[in-house]
Amino acid sequence: MFKPKYSITPRINKSLVEIERVRGFLDAVKLKDDWIVDMQKKALILESHHSTHIEGTALSLEQSKNILEGKKVKGVNRDDEKELLNYKKAMDFISKYLGKDDPISEGIVRELHKVIVKSVRGENADPGNYRKIQNYVVNSRTREVVYTPPTPLEVPHLMREFTEWINKVEDVSPILVAGIVQFQFVHIHPFIDGNGRTARLLSTLILYKTGYDFKRLFTISEYYDKDRPSYYQAIQSVRNNNMDMTAWLGYFVEGLRSQMEEIQDKGKKIIISEKIVKASAGYNLNLRQEKIIRYLIVNEQINNEQCQRLCGSIRRTATRDLVSLAEKGLLLKKGVLKGAYYILSSTVSKI
What fold does the segment set 280-350 form as a domain? Predict the structure, then answer.
């Protein structure tokens, strides 16, 4: 039977406590549905972009955003585009299991992999089927083999043990289970390709199923992608320490904790923005201008193009709204011509 080896260090325990605190905050706080939906959309874009970027796609965040919003983007690799869209579909796939008690079967894992790699790069990843050949994890720069996964003959047995453990484990924090699942999956490396993406999604699925979805506002892959050497080093630390997962779990839990801290900060800013909008009733703001004030509380600055996207307005209308807010003393204009943007004035903090 699969039996992970690890210790709960004071650092891990502290991070778990802080994650629980933010979870309580998110359960208690009353945020408007349109705010939640907007934040979920942004989190989905970030997670899809960063998880596929880790695996080598060359799309910029802006290109990813446009593709996921259904826009045509010129000059991009179509396989990169397809991988991104597949990841978004895979996120939708696991969202169906939010709070459900269904066991995580090998069938679900295979189906998830099928969604991730379908129609990408000639389907060389053999969607949904365990590998029948030996594969290797190679350093993308030096081409050095850094890890040789188990043989193809071992994969079915290891996956059976692995999924049995997921469904039987008790008295372990779901957050730790999610971290263990992510490592063990990439360690088995059951598919020809797409193992990293599947592992991160499977980890997220564990959190979704056990009530740790955090309103689907977190994007753990962003944390990994910002410092990939640390991510790979944390994974390799398990193999370097006689399969002890403590260091990896410390890294995994810290990543989730930092995400929770960002979400809580954003949630607090949203609460403040709602209070400010209510208190500014005397300024006779229209609905677009209220949106601009809310946006600035969270994002600190806005330009004309961002204002158009935010409010669904044309350039002339966006200019009129921004100038009007500046004339009322609520915004300050910075920069000139195409580099111009607006920030909140000190008046807003006094409302």
Answer: Arc Repressor Mutant, subunit A (1.10.10)
